[in-house]
Design brief:
Blueprint: H1 8-24, H2 31-38, H3 42-48, H4 52-74, H5 81-97, H6 99-110, H7 118-129, H8 137-160, H9 163-178
Helix pairs in contact: 1-2, 1-4, 1-6, 4-5, 4-6, 4-7, 5-6, 5-8, 5-9, 6-8, 8-9
Amino acid sequence: MPRQPRTGFDEKILDTAAALFARHGFEQTSLKALADAVGLSKAGLLHHFPSKDALFEAAWEHSRVLSRHVVELVSPMPAGPAREKRALELLTDIALDRPGLVSLLFRSMTAPGEDPQQAQDELLLNEMFVVDPQVELERAVRIVGALSAMAVLTLLANQEGDKTTWRPLILATCTDALGHREA
């Protein structure tokens, strides 16, 4: 089982690695490219994570930990628009702070099968938004649409370097995608 990141630098490594894995895939991302991206030698990177496999698993696990934390925060709330809006706020804040992890999670939607625990991630989302895709297909599609919009928009906000201006616009877009128009 991958260890949890101990430092802010470990989180930077995970986010940077996640972005590279998302962009190039696991096989095409070299240990040297990972080390160069975070400003370490290969030996220095291996001091933090013992292998490329361990780094990949740690990036996925870190994203799952963050997702489970959101579930824990919204679970006490009753199902409905307020819960969904809070989940979107929390997820947007994570996405704005960790664009690499968002890229990796988004890749799981566009390149299925790369992550063996993708089904677990889908269950977390179903729990977060209280939806059964087999019964509520329209809601499930709206949720995927909202999260996809969030992923793309938060990546653009990071690219533009203006998270503060973009955040309320991202939230409004995602809320609208769910069908919860703000008054």
